[in-house]
Amino acid sequence: MSGSIASYDQLVRQGEALKKENSHLRRELEDNSNHLSKLENETSDMKEVLKHLQGKLEQEARVMVSSGQTEVLDQLKALQMDITSLYNLKFAPEVPSGGRGPEESPAAPGPQRDGPGELGRATFRMLEELDRER
């Protein structure tokens, strides 16, 4: 009879331990859910900022075309492509790429090209560095 009492006490202790672990996991899940919601809001805000910046770039491009400043327009186009590439790298949904990392992605700006996109690549590198520090 004492063996069954010991087994019962052991089961009660295991049940209590499982309840504690379950509570801990629920809190962690809630924290993660809150963090995910915050990140989704920040992403949405960044999308709005990017849309606003793209609108400004397009407006500037129209002004520059009308005034004959095509070389600056070419620089703006390259910058816009770099911004779009950066956005696609940072906010694209996670998709298995067959072992290819972001540095091998076709959307990543290549280090061999010189010219108007250099500012965008420098910005991209700085953002990557800040992300690593965080």
From TrEMBL:
GO terms for cellular component: beta-catenin destruction complex; catenin complex; cytoplasmic microtubule. Residues 6-57 form the Adenomatous polyposis coli N-terminal dimerisation domain. Pfam families: APC_N_CC (PF16689). InterPro entries: Apc_fam, APC_N, APC_N_sf. One of its GO terms (biological process) is pattern specification process. GO terms for molecular function: beta-catenin binding; gamma-catenin binding; microtubule binding. Residues 22-43, 92-121 are annotated as: Disordered. This is APCL protein.
